[in-house]
Design goal:
3 helical TM bundles of succinate and fumarate reductases; about 80% helix; elongated
């Protein structure tokens, strides 16, 4: 038998535990490593011909890194906005609607970006 304090200990204000916090911290650290690489790629490819950029993105060192950067950025954005919505929206129906819209928006943007990168990767593979 647990006490009321034992049931809520460590859950935080959103009653969800520390999973979101750990996810934001881990994604933030990995993004801290990937961001300079992606910025350097952007500077390197700026002003180049389209064929050069597509061939570069199809490279083993560029395409997967860009996809990882996009997926982690979307995850980090979605978790951060989820925390803000849970902390500052108090009406349950509004909170639920905003959480759903947040997830749909973040992952639809991520899906479009990943799809575009995959198209460029496979376009360069065609003869």
């Amino acid at each position: 038998m647990t006490t009321p304090l034992g049931r809520v200990r460590g859950l935080g204000s959103a009653k969800g535990g520390t999973g979101i916090y750990v996810g934001k911290q881990v994604s933030g650290v990995v993004l801290g490593v990937l961001t300079p690489y992606v910025v350097a790629l952007g500077i390197y490819m700026f002003g180049r011909e389209r064929d050069f950029v597509v061939a570069s993105i199809a490279s083993f060192w560029v395409g997967p890194a860009l996809i990882a950067f996009i997926v982690l950025s979307v995850l980090h954005m979605e978790l951060g906005m989820r925390t803000i919505i849970q902390d500052y929206v108090h009406s349950h129906p509004e909170k639920l609607a905003l959480l759903i819209l947040n997830s749909v928006f973040a992952w639809s943007i991520g899906l479009v970006c990943v799809f575009a990168i995959l198209l460029m990767m496979f376009e360069a593979a065609r003869p």
